[in-house]
Write a structure and sequence with these properties.
The relative contact order is 0.09. About 35% of the residues lie in helices and about 20% in strands. By secondary structure, the protein is α/β, with parallel strands linked by helices. α1 packs parallel to α2 and α7 packs parallel to α8. The radius of gyration is 27 Å and the shape is globular. The longest helix is centred in the N-terminal third of the chain and has 20 residues. The strands form five sheets. It has a six-stranded mixed beta sheet with strand order 4-3-2-1-15-16, covered by helices on one side. It has a six-stranded mixed beta sheet with strand order 7-8-9-12-14-13. The chain folds into three domains: about 250 residues, Metallo-dependent phosphatases (Purple Acid Phosphatase, chain A, domain 2), CATH 3.60.21.10; about 80 residues, no CATH class; about 70 residues, no CATH class. The protein binds manganese (II) ion (MN). The site of manganese (II) ion has 6 residues, from loops.
Length: about 425
């Protein structure tokens, strides 16, 4: 028996056209590879899509690839992930299921107060699949606690438990997921097909727990690891007649990445601007994913003195595939130390607004030159109380109308 184990595809996570094309190509190539490898079936352990109702173009691409695959007589087994599940709305996963493109495993059924997730026998290979979908963590935890373990124990054959949950024992310091303990996974399964943790792992403990990590690298959270050389792809799992398991990771990365960290501590804004321009003009970034992390506190100058727009332009002009810019940790000393003296609240407020106005980069001329005035008007407006007898609804629409007027815009988003 041979199968493929994928998870965390997060299809549709990127809005960047180039990354979108890579994402689609990786999906197509992955299933093509599965056919060439003659796998019996494919498991997707949650987060097939990034949201429960993705862009229909993304769904169409998936439908084309899945159709081709299942027309060869193979099945795709899926559980919900935390991203593609919605407690109160139909998810696209449900549509794919009724259309016969995928098979959902582990549908919950309650028997005598205990949870019996539905089990499915794969006709081609004889493997038995069940599992628990990803939900909000508290619900998932409850599901693990309520599992009917006797019922699961009686299932026979090569047994696979598919789940979309992190495990406490393997959490890294920088990972913030809430998980369950390995002990809470039901015993007696030959293979535990995990999803939710975004890095590949094959834990050869007393339970064979495997996480493939993301198939592709579509969004911020994954890009840094990718640029740092982490592989992205899926596992091919070979099982012999004794149920001995061998896994092979198939790396699907379509490009290389570069991670650049620029520590601004002790430098002026002008110096950092120059350093970043040097990165932008480095010929090594051509054809690569660039993750640029700028952090630390500038010695002088404001963060808005760094011309990120021109830096990004230069990076793209020099042939990088994609830039992921992380500058949340970049600070300027001057902003932090705003101290203003004044006779009264209005004076102090005006002083603070004037100080802060210079730290934000605004392209709109009216907003830039009149920013202090506009901010004062906004503050006054947002402070104004309800008129007696006014309903919540009309109060809200009155404030919104006034805010639009002050900002000179047509619509609040
Ligand atoms: Mn995920």
């Amino acid at each position: 028996m041979k199968f493929a184990h994928m998870a965390d595809l997060h299809l549709g996570a990127t809005s960047d056209q180039k990354l979108r094309e890579f994402e689609c190509k990786v999906l197509e190539d992955s299933f093509k590879h599965c056919i060439e490898e003659c796998v019996d079936f494919v498991i997707i352990a949650g987060d097939l899509f990034h949201v429960n109702i993705p862009d229909l173009m993304v769904v169409r691409d998936v439908a084309v690839v899945f159709r081709k695959f299942i027309d060869t007589g193979r099945k795709i087994y899926v559980v919900y992930g935390s991203h593609d599940f919605s407690p109160n709305a139909t998810s696209i996963i449900d549509i794919l299921e009724v259309s016969g493109l995928i098979v959902r495993v582990g549908k919950p059924q309650i028997e005598g107060g205990l949870l019996r997730p539905s089990a499915i026998r794969d006709v081609k290979s004889g493997a038995v699949l069940t599992g628990i979908s990803g939900r909000r963590t508290s619900l998932e935890k409850e599901a693990f606690e309520r599992l009917d373990r006797d019922y699961l124990d009686k299932l026979e054959g090569f047994k696979i438990f598919v789940f979309h949950t992190g495990l406490d024992e393997i959490r890294r310091e920088d990972e913030r997921f809430e998980g369950v303990s390995i002990k809470e996974l039901p015993p007696g399964f030959d293979y535990y097909a995990g999803g939710h943790i975004h890095r590949k792992m094959d834990l050869k403990k007393d339970k064979r727990i495997v996480y493939p990590g993301p198939l592709f690298t579509g969004w911020g959270a994954d890009l840094e690891g990718t640029a740092n050389g982490e592989e992205r792809g899926f596992y091919i799992v070979d099982v012999d007649s004794e149920h001995e398991i061998e896994t092979r990771f198939k790396n699907m990365m379509p490009f290389e990445g570069i991670l650049k960290k620029v520590n601004a501590a002790g430098y002026s804004a002008a110096e950092i601007n120059k350093q970043l321009m040097d990165v932008a003009n480095d010929p090594k970034i051509r054809g690569k994913l660039l993750v640029l992390k700028v952090f630390g506190e500038l010695s002088t100058g404001k963060t808005s003195d760094i011309d990120f727009v021109s830096i990004k332009d230069a990076i793209m002009k020099n042939g990088a595939i994609y830039l992921h810019l992380n500058r949340h940790q970049l600070k300027s000393r001057e902003v932090r130390q705003v101290t203003v003296n004044g006779e009264n609240t209005a004076e102090i407020e005006e002083g603070v607004l004037k100080e802060l106005a210079g730290t934000v980069r605004i392209s709109d001329e009216r907003l830039r030159s009149g920013s202090v005035d506009i901010a004062k008007q906004l503050l006054a407006q947002l402070r104004s109380p309800k008129i007696e007898g006014e309903t919540g609804e009309s109060y809200e629409s009155r404030i919104k109308a006034n805010v639009k007027e002050i900002l000179g815009i047509k619509e609040l988003i």
